[in-house]
Amino acid sequence: MSKGKYQVVLDDELFKDYHKFKKGEKLEKDEVERIKCLLHYFKGELITNIAQYERTGLPLDIALKKKLAQSGLKKQSNEELAQSHTTYKVILCCGRCDFPYVNVTSSEEKIENNLSSFYDIAEKRDKAIKHLKALCIGAKKIVVYDKYFAEPDKEARNIGTLIKILPQKKLTILLSAITPNGIQTLKDTCVDWEPQLDSTLKGRHDRYVIVDDKLEIVLSSGFDHLSADSSDFMYVVRVTDKSRF
């Protein structure tokens, strides 16, 4: 088993749950919930060793034991396995939140597994715009937070990009920065849109599009670099219980 970025270490409890799941054994309700949470985070190949099988009492066939031994996977702790055999250096678990543990069942866990996309300089953003449009398609309210949105040399292009991703239907649009002319442009584009400047949207460094207070799209360098490919750009999509604004 070679090192790789798609390898993961589980704590002993999740290790036992995962083996029951893989073998098709009947799972209790709490085990089912843990497996659902685990699969949200799980990427690629499981890294384990002989010691973990011995601690958990799970059967270890001779062929696998030999393979683990030949790979040097014998007596390391879970922390040592995560550090030496994974790229992300974490252990997925369901009981601890201190590093290197990532609690897959906790709503308070700060290390998340979200959908993201990265664009380098000169890479076209067409796919990103189509994705954001799909995320907004059923929205009733959109919050746009970008403190540079209305800068004189950027606003027209930013509004043009915003128009591309918004659905042409009844929609409340709250913006942290926009000029009266920008508001009018949006109103002229779709009579069902209700755009308005909201001066209470402030105090953040990153840029956001919030969909119905349930879906958060974080734009690393704002609308300006979503529409122009002169710089690198990334965005992250997070499901959230409430808006940060």
Structure report:
With 245 residues, the chain is of the alpha/beta class. The protein is built from 9 helices and 11 strands. The strands form 2 sheets. A 7-stranded mixed β-sheet has the order 5-11-10-9-6-7-8. The chain has a 4-stranded parallel β-sheet with strand order 2-1-3-4. Helix 8 links the parallel strand 7 (171-175) and strand 8. The mean pLDDT is 93.
Provide the spatial order of strands within the biggest beta sheet: 5-11-10-9-6-7-8
Q: Overall pLDDT, averaged?
A: 93
User: Mind telling me the C-alpha Rg?
Assistant: 23 Å
Low-pLDDT windows of residues: none
Q: What kind of sheet is the major sheet?
A: 7 strands, mixed
* Record field, number of beta strands: 11
Helix content: 25-40%
Topology:
Elements (H helix, E strand, L loop, with lengths): L6 E4 L1 H11 L6 H13 L3 E2 L3 H7 L5 H9 L7 H8 L5 E3 L7 E3 L11 E5 L6 H11 L4 E5 L9 H11 L5 E5 L4 H10 L3 E5 L9 E5 L3 E5 L2 H6 L5 E7 L6
Parallel strand pairs: 1-2, 1-3, 3-4, 6-7, 7-8
Antiparallel strand pairs: 5-11, 6-9, 9-10, 10-11
